[in-house]
Amino acid sequence: MINEAYKAMLGGKSVIRELSEYATARGAEIGYENVLDYSLGNPSVPCPQRFTDAMTDLYATAEPVALHGYSPSLGIPSVREAIAESLNRRFGMDYTADHIFPTTGAAGALAHALRVVTKPGDEVITFAPYFPEYQPYVDGTGAHLTVVPADTENFQINFEAFEAAMNPTVAAVLINTPNNPSGAVYRAETLTRLAEFLRAKQAEYGHDIFLISDEPYREIVFDGGSQPYPSRFYDNTLSCYSYSKSLSLPGERIGYVAVNPRATDAELIVPMCGQVSRGTGHNCPSSSIQLGVAKVVDETSDLSVYETNMNLLYDALTRLGFEVVRPGGTFYIFPKALEDDANAFCMKAKDYDLILVPSDSFGVPGYFRMAYCIDTEKVERSIAALERFVHEVYGR
Amino acid sequence: MINEAYKAMLGGKSVIRELSEYATARGAEIGYENVLDYSLGNPSVPCPQRFTDAMTDLYATAEPVALHGYSPSLGIPSVREAIAESLNRRFGMDYTADHIFPTTGAAGALAHALRVVTKPGDEVITFAPYFPEYQPYVDGTGAHLTVVPADTENFQINFEAFEAAMNPTVAAVLINTPNNPSGAVYRAETLTRLAEFLRAKQAEYGHDIFLISDEPYREIVFDGGSQPYPSRFYDNTLSCYSYSKSLSLPGERIGYVAVNPRATDAELIVPMCGQVSRGTGHNCPSSSIQLGVAKVVDETSDLSVYETNMNLLYDALTRLGFEVVRPGGTFYIFPKALEDDANAFCMKAKDYDLILVPSDSFGVPGYFRMAYCIDTEKVERSIAALERFVHEVYGR
């Protein structure tokens, strides 16, 4: 019998996807180069040449039966070890291979992490603005997602609202830094305060509260800065990562869960992820891609274009009178719309072939997101269109 | 908070995996070539050279941003079309790309198919002997798996037991042909009778009953035969496939769900699979592997070794007095043990470095499985060991 719940979900189309489809259709009319498409967070830079070389070498020299053979259900040991060592070098952690569970990107990582540290009926807290797919990710586990209102001053954490929302049914807190859609990079002070608060609540409630840290933008940080590593601040942390952005491999679906060695039941969490996989049909990322990524585990694509684009857009938006928090990283910027109704604002922008995503689905009304993982030349053209748009529609 | 249900699952180790680990450990002592390891269904032949060539060509010529870019959430259209056309050519179906949902192997396909056509509390029927992972696959959806006792005469379907088990809460029937572990190939008469029975029950109960057909061994059929295509017999069929065996790519996690165009809500089922993915963290198989497989979609590895091995084993087992149904396909054979307790039988075989899997976890007591996806030379040596074993232990 057809499952009516999934059937009903067919109605609820993602705004981002709808706008992206509109951009593609509009591109067919006027040439896609003329659509100033800021809808999708799809990396615009190629993977490092060394990744391509590593894969070419594997195809030339590895035994096919080994290259394409079943990965052990917890991932290929040498790959897990390479990831652990890279994290230890970069963030002063002490992971072993046993703390690393390779997954199909951050979506796969979150699907496992959420299931391991919540049960149906539990509450998971996240902070607005947040990636809209967190809703189906959490729904899929049977837990309930609670969204804490945004700190619109600087898109760190609104601790007052967080403290009001916290209660004993909260099993996990889900953060995303650098943040999609705001571009905010949680500062060390934010993570310190978050960790102190969670430790106090663990003591008060007498149970663990896990921090699930979604980190696909970890390497895209501007002004020579870096993202403080959340797991350094709080023992009960599961770091969820994807190579989609850092290596520009979004279609390869490769990432991991990294379990803080000091977390409760740390030695059981990766084996438990293996049990989760049996129910969800996961069974590890591609074996060849695991082996290829392990060879370039400390590298990134040339990510500099994102900072170039951010600076161009931030300067233009500020000059045009937008209220906007300067992004510390990612390839997103999240300005306040020029009218209360962000949907109306973004609809009007379409007349200038500017494809902007209204903020409502990110849990904050009245803003819009621009995903500037596009060519700088197009960013420059879009600024001229933005000027015309705000001048002609809003008289600025 | 740690999920106690997944934690409790850690105790229940798979017998197959335990035996495989024993074989590896024993191999470290005496040399793996001396372990007559029939535990794991891991293809022993390489992928076709044309697959390696296709991948090498993609890495040499494709734009990395396209090769590794996000797959649309329902799969890459050209890949879906190539799969549809291949199935149409081979089985006289009339699939379009819209009926094909690429997945991470058959496990991913089953995870989606089961969720789309059942809801928590529904019943799913399968037939012994069956692949033990069906239990967690179905558990993960919230539905309940009912196992119909085996037809031990020829490992087709025990219709008497099936009719007794059928009831109105059954939302789906799960078959696996060619079958792991028996090697049975369901005959056209079996599929015809199955389809007629399901159609009658649909009419009687006034609701759909879907047939979920798990077909990873579809291309491994002996004696020049072929597997009748189950979807040809019954409209409400979701065919679940993996390229793990036919192309020897088990670690690449690539397969699909193919929805019979005449199924109820056929046009909705693939989009519903896309909704299922959002909750399970699936998000398509590797983009590059999708593109590579689409180029060799009608090919297989050289699978002839499996038939060679089957004939050697079948003849030897028969000669040694085992009751055994001759496999029509796969790389498994499923003889009756020489004592009632298959676990005891397989334990004793270990003294001869024969690694046999007892049948209890397949839902039939008193048998054992041999996965003969190993070198023929080792099969020949194993026959000598088998002779000594049955002579010395059972006096034959």
UniProtKB/TrEMBL annotation, chains A, B:
Residues 35-386 form the Aminotransferase class I/classII large domain. Pfam families: Aminotran_1_2 (PF00155). Its EC number is 2.6.1.-. InterPro entries: Aminotransferase_I/II_large, NHTrfase_class1_PyrdxlP-BS, PyrdxlP-dep_Trfase, PyrdxlP-dep_Trfase_major, PyrdxlP-dep_Trfase_small. Its cofactor is pyridoxal 5'-phosphate. It is an enzyme of class 2 (transferase). Keywords: Aminotransferase, Transferase. GO terms for molecular function: pyridoxal phosphate binding; transaminase activity. The keyword Transferase applies. Signal peptide: none annotated. Belongs to the class-I pyridoxal-phosphate-dependent aminotransferase family. This is Aminotransferase.
